[in-house]
């Protein structure tokens, strides 16, 4: 009697728990695979980070173009003379020495005689100098510089263009990786739901069997051992149900995390893994198995292109450069700080600067050789990467074919197990079989159901991995190539 009460309480608890879970699912958001992918591509932080990286590279490209434009700087400078410069004169100007009349025109000689009276040397001051300038020197103005011929600047612009394309490909790669993870997480949640339903249906069926056996036990038709065995069989299913429920929660949280939504948001997925069984025989493998859209190869090629331009940039370090400059300045020299009495004198210059690299210790040559060797390394690395990707494509196609065969085999095993269970049950009801045979047949049905759904999941996971390697979705899902 106590066993019957415990059994009834256990059934009531499980039914209440199941009904409560069903009620929560009825209030949740129903998702299909396309909707889950759309939300993930819009809300996942990884995708947003990749999009921001593209914007950063755009600004870097504009900065590279800005190096070709004139650079305008406003300059202000103050200098305080600690000791002023001394200047010496070799001829005349009141400082000693002589002037050769044959070197000057009559007008120049007249000016020298009239202004400086310099024909008469002054031996006492011939070796003395004059301190020039004032203590305070103030300078303010505008400096404009413009590169005219600087080959390295154009190569930097080309490298920035490659950086943008590389950032876009990395963003595409993050989307492909996200689609792969979300799709597999979606399938994992379907598998967890299907496993939970299998154990739930098994529990319901065994509960009915236990009730029938208990009724027969009261009538004295079956021995007590059969009731005990059926009771143990029923209670042994409860841990499996709890484990399946826990796996379902974990799969749901994983899907929410990849989608970029709050973990408290109630969601549920539509359908089951059996819904994909009919489509798996339509296309075993895509028609185009080339690596044309593979994101790893695309990124590698862009990295190689960037390395090639870096090598060309090193070679351009040997080229001469030509820059122009223009200055318009105001200067004031004073011995005090009476700013209102300062006199500002303007001056301006326009110039060209030609720089021809000659020798810098072999740095340019060694840097160029390093870049050259890096290009050789990239060629071997690309060959190895392409071989590994082709092997991955072949392995995934073989895995898909194997999983299809496994689905067919487990599907047949499910039909046979159910048929065997019905036969065993009839034999038990007619007294030709035992409760052990019934439990074994029921366990075989449960295992076959689980293996069947795991086989479908393995097929879908392998197909998703193949799509990731190929770089596009076989199914019509929106994804920029």
Please tell me about this protein's structure:
With 481 residues, the chain is of the alpha+beta class. The chain has 3 domains: 2-69 and 153-315 and 362-470, Outer membrane efflux proteins (OEP); 86-129, no CATH class; 133-148 and 320-356, no CATH class. It has helices at residues 2-26, 33-43, 45-66, 106-116, 151-219, 224-259, 295-316, 363-429, 435-470; strands spanning 29-31, 71-80, 86-87, 130-131, 136-149, 267-269, 321-334, 345-355. The chain has a 4-stranded antiparallel sheet, with no helix packed on it. The protein has a two-stranded parallel sheet with strand order 1-6. α5 runs antiparallel to α7 (295-316) and α7 runs antiparallel to α8 (363-429). Mean pLDDT is 83; it is low at 1-12, 19-26, 92-96 and 474-481.
CATH superfamily of the largest domain: Outer membrane efflux proteins (OEP)
- Give a short account of the largest sheet: 4 strands, antiparallel
Q: How many helices in DSSP terms?
A: 9
CATH topology of the largest domain: Outer membrane efflux proteins (OEP)
In CATH, the architecture of the largest domain is Up-down Bundle
Instruction: State the secondary-structure class.
Output: alpha+beta
Brief rundown of the structure:
The chain has 481 residues and is of the alpha+beta class. 62% of the residues lie in helices and 12% in strands. The strands form three sheets. The chain has a four-stranded antiparallel beta sheet, with no helix packed on it. Strands 1-6 form a two-stranded parallel ribbon.
